[in-house]
Amino acid sequence: GRGFLPAVGTLSAWRPPSGPGVRLDSGYEEGHTVPQEFDSLIAKLIVTGATREQAIQRSRRALAEMQIDGMPTVLPFHRVVLEDPAYASEPFSVHTRWIETEFNNTIAPYSGAAAGDEAETGERERVTVEVGGKRLEVVLPAGLGALGSAAAAGKAAPARKRGGRKGGGAAAGGDALVSPMQGTIVKVVVEDGATVAEGDTIVVLEAMKMEQPLTAHKAGTITGLSAEVGGAVSSGAVICEIKDA
């Protein structure tokens, strides 16, 4: 999806699974809108079986049947995990830090329109940004990334695959610091004209009761920062630019 960031949107498709041992708890239906004020949990899928192997098989089928469109979800992540030998084999070898240290993330970034982008039309492009030390891809209207993104020329910056070991996260190219999600600004840490180092927090966003710091993807001088506490930002909005010092 989008790196497990909280997401909002309107459920344009909602196809729950069914079958033996499959249960879905949810308060949403097709056409409902998931707002940013509440928890990002839209459903719980519970699958049981007489054995672990049967439960895994039923889970795979249920996840294959389940369809949610209109916003990013963790469905692709769960589908991939259930096929991973480390999880599906007996005995399994997953542990509490398996995702961070060993899971080979080959899941394609969510490519649908983000909430708040529905009114945007025309060509779109991908921009790679870095938030909290993690690289994420966001989809912007064509040309918006020209403020400094690596995708300004219409070429997508390649998504990084996370392998079994941690590595130093390369900063996103260009000057623009882009919001990876819709939210409300709850803290502005720096002022326009300030000098920052790579990794310094610029602003803090809140969405669905979760706070997400947006950090500098490179060292430089802050320009064009107009963010205010209480202000709303949409996914893909440019927070500021960081010019080389």
UniProtKB/TrEMBL annotation:
Coiled coil: none annotated. One of its GO terms (molecular function) is ATP binding. Keywords: ATP-binding, Biotin, Ligase, Nucleotide-binding. Gene3D superfamilies: 2.40.50.100, ATP-grasp fold, B domain. InterPro entries: Biotin_BS (IPR001882), Biotin_carboxylase_complex (IPR050856), Biotin_carboxylation_dom (IPR011764), Biotin_COase_C (IPR005482), Biotin_lipoyl (IPR000089), Rudment_hybrid_motif (IPR011054), Single_hybrid_motif (IPR011053). CDD domains: biotinyl_domain. SMART domains: Biotin_carb_C. Its EC number is 6.3.4.14. Residues 165-243 form the Lipoyl-binding domain. Residues 1-102 form the Biotin carboxylation domain. It comes from the Bacteria. This is biotin carboxylase. It comes from Thermomonospora echinospora.
